[in-house]
């Protein structure tokens, strides 16, 4: 049996390919029945005998006219169709289609689908095209989800602060993880807190997207977190990618995702991890439940656990991102014109982002030179116009000090004076934030 040509992957998506591959590999294991092996061997022998008969006929009738020979070849080919294998991929050193031993390594390894599986570029392209048609027909796109600081937060048990030790007596049962959010994983010496709203987020997102997990954590950790998030295997199936599966060190890439880039969205807290796919990225506000997480990113403040608080369930980061994903999904499928396969979700994402600060005219005052280019870029991506000099059209002065000349001008002219976090919050929540929540305090003498 051919893993490729007989595979459901020719008519369905990567999940079917995964299932078929597992079945095929199981069937070729030492546990396979002797009858199946004998049947397969008989088929190979039958083809070999027909080929020998054809070769013998060609040798003994070498003087036959060209027309008769062509006729015999046509008849022979009609009874024995001999395919030249294109070697679409390999398992170990064997072609997954014909079983031939292959020299060298080419293509991309998909170890998260099955250990040792490598697919060549043409096969990857074929699977992506097949997958895309299937999911677009079902009104689904792709969503690649980071774990740490995006969907959850994890700490080493030994790194719990003295003010977090109360958590050791507040963990939820691992018998039914669907009912809990705080888990102690003794065998990994870890504690994990799921982000508020994450279960609702995954349930509703799964109706619009085919979802992957992609983490820089190692594979055992990734699989443990997947069990906490998806205990019934409803959302991710075999689509759990770890750092062990990546093709570039310290980088994540869509080369190991069986989805067309034009239909993939990425949700991650780290922009630098996706240098080649920034147009697919939705940057997520980091979730710092544990003190060790705060320290990791240089925050000198108490963690949520230490203050015995948490993000808002219905008005927090994941809830806001879900609203935006629904808008992108609706725009892609219901508002764009033309064939579905020609649409690009990256353009939709850019369009939705460009409306957030539309109509805002911004000027910056005394912003750190290192931070200024990034703030300006983000504001412009969200539709704002950024000026270098004061102008009557300015609507917002962004500053960290209310005592600067531009800040005082904003107060006098009754313009909005906001802290840079106003731009950052709009970017994270995909929504213009109330200016009164980002008041700037006077910290220096007027200039």
In summary, what is this structure?
The protein has 447 residues and is of the alpha/beta class. Helix content is 34%, strand content 13%.
Which of globular, elongated, flat, extended, rod-shaped describes the shape? globular
Strand order of the largest sheet: 10-9-5-11-12
CATH class of the largest domain: Alpha Beta
How many discrete domains?
3
Mean pLDDT: 85
Domain BRCT: 352-440
Biased composition (Polar residues): 1-14
Keywords: Hydrolase, Metal-binding, Nucleus, Repressor, RNA-binding, Transcription, Transcription regulation
GO molecular function: metal ion binding; RNA binding; RNA polymerase II CTD heptapeptide repeat phosphatase activity
Question: How does this model look, in words?
Answer:
34% of the residues lie in helices and 13% in strands. A hairpin with a 4-residue loop joins strand 7 and strand 8. Mean pLDDT is 85; it is low at 1-12, 27-34, 36-41, 43-48, 50-55 and 57-76. The chain has a five-stranded parallel sheet with strand order 10-9-5-11-12. It is of the alpha/beta class. The N and C termini lie far apart (80 Å).
């Amino acid at each position: 049996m051919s893993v490729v040509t007989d595979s459901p992957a020719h008519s369905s998506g990567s999940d079917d390919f995964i299932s078929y591959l597992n079945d095929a590999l199981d069937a070729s294991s030492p546990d396979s029945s002797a009858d199946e092996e004998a049947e397969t061997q008989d088929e190979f022998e039958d083809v070999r005998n027909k080929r020998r008969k054809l070769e013998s006929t060609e040798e003994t009738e070498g003087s036959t006219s060209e027309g008769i020979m062509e006729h015999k070849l046509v008849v022979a080919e009609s009874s024995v169709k001999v395919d030249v294998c294109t070697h679409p991929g390999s398992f170990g050193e064997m072609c997954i289609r014909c079983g031939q031993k292959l020299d060298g390594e080419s293509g991309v390894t998909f170890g998260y689908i099955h250990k040792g599986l490598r697919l060549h570029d043409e096969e990857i392209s074929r699977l992506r095209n097949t997958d895309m048609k299937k999911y677009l027909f079902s009104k689904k796109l792709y969503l690649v989800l980071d774990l740490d600081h995006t969907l959850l937060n994890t700490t080493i048990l030994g790194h719990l602060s003295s003010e977090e030790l109360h958590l050791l007596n507040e963990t939820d049962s691992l018998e039914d993880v669907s009912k809990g959010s705080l888990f102690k994983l003794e065998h990994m010496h870890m504690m994990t807190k799921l982000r508020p709203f994450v279960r609702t987020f995954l349930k509703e997102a799964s109706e619009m997207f085919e979802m992957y997990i992609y983490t820089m954590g190692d594979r055992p950790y990734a699989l443990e977190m997947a069990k906490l998030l998806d205990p019934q295997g409803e959302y991710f199936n075999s689509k759990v990618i770890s750092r062990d599966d990546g093709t570039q060190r310290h980088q994540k890439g869509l080369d190991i995702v069986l989805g067309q880039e034009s239909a993939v969205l990425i949700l991650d807290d780290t922009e630098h991890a996706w240098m080649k796919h920034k147009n697919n990225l939705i940057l997520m506000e980091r979730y710092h439940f544990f003190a060790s997480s705060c320290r990791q990113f240089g925050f000198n403040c108490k963690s949520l656990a230490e203050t015995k608080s948490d993000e808002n369930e219905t008005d927090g980061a994941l809830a806001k991102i879900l609203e935006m994903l629904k808008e992108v999904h609706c725009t892609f499928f219901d508002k764009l014109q033309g064939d579905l396969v020609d649409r690009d979700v990256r353009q939709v994402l850019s369009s939705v982002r460009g409306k957030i600060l539309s109509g805002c005219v911004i000027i910056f005052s005394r912003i750190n030179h290192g931070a200024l280019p990034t703030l300006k870029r983000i504001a412009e991506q969200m539709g704002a116009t950024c000026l270098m000099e004061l102008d009557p059209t300015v609507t917002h002065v962004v500053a960290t000090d209310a005592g600067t000349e531009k800040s005082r001008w904003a107060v006098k002219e009754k313009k909005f004076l906001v802290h840079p976090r106003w731009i950052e919050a709009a970017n994270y929540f995909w929504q213009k934030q109330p200016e009164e929540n980002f008041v700037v305090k006077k910290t220096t003498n007027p200039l």
